Amino acid sequence: MLTQLRDVRGYPGFTSLAISRFISNVGNGVSPIALAYGVLSLPNSTGKDLSIVMAARFVPLLAFMLFGGVIADRFQRNRLVGGSDMIGSFLAALSAISLIVGFSSTWLLALMGALFGILNAIWWPAMSGVLPEILPKEKLQEGNAVIGLTTNFGYILGTLGGGILVSTVGAGWGLLVDAISFFIAGAIVWNLPIIGKVKDKSPGIIHDLAAGWKEFISRSWVIAMVLSFALINMAFESMLSVLGPLNFNDPVSGPKQWSYNLAGLSVGMLIGGIWVLKVKIGRPLFLAMILIALSAVWDFTLAFDSHIIFSVLASVISGISLEVFMVTWNTSLQSHVPEESYSRVSSYDTLGSYGIAPLGIVFAGPLAMHFGVNTILFVTGGVTLVASIASLLVPSVRNLRND
């Protein structure tokens, strides 16, 4: 593993990118805990309010995602990523101050989330194309794995610290840590030593979108995975954003218990990242989707109200599955999709994969209030299990290789 680390570290900009992901994800680890329990701490708030706030950033993210992909393929990607992070830090800071001072509301937090979603629509496709501008194709799996490791180290620190911060000094201070981490990470990425490639002059946005769509639909394995993850992400985001915090809803012990679960998820991702860094996977998506099917154990463990030890262990399994998938998926796209249209294909991927996730988040709270949190957790676990297995019925998913 140390050999792979030394290899990728030698490429200009890689170490700075890894550091920025660590710093950003310290804040990202704190953010979901702080935001969820910040909403639940508002007067008369319910699961419905939590659903509104958590879904708010997804709608504009998806609405502007294709536009973000076109921008990312036209302009210097690290500047788009850094600029989005730094602007987003001010939105997170406003949410934090509103909770600290006491003028916050469900709709203010939802508005800040929606604006952040617009920035994220630019950030996401641009970020996915930064690493291929630093590393050659044969180093992408190692690079993605190392970035995943630094990301998960940061996320573990953030989730454990987030639970303590929220339960002791309050959710607002947790969001303030998130805002600071975003600004620092954005400044680092903005100054990466990347000289943007000269882009061919495009006939226009419609032409760019059409060209990206042609690349996207030309691969059956991409279509199959996006359709499967439309359902998987709807279930996962509902559990992660709404059902998990509602399952641990005690104002004193809840934030810590949920933070232990999120830390377990990150520890699992760390383990998965170390493992995938050391091995060459012959059929990456075949293995990844088997693991994603196994990740449903986290939903089921929460649904049975198992002891915290068992839910944390289940979250570790889910984390391993998620990280192996993320590394293999990013490497597969980066290996098989031309660099000049990569961000547009990535934006179509994100739009399809997360297209119905907001519906899951919006309805998760009200459905949990009506049928019970445990019942809806059984549903999310079942959806993940069935959708994962269904993807393996497609031969190109089972047989894809990144040689």
TrEMBL record:
Topology term for the membrane: Multi-pass membrane protein
What do the Gene Ontology cellular component annotations say?
plasma membrane
Single GO molecular-function term? transmembrane transporter activity
What InterPro entries does the record point to?
MFS (IPR011701), MFS_trans_sf (IPR036259)
Where is this gene product found? Cell membrane
Task: Using the record, list the residue span of the signal peptide; answer none if the entry has no such feature.
Answer: none
* Protein name per its UniProtKB record: Major facilitator superfamily protein
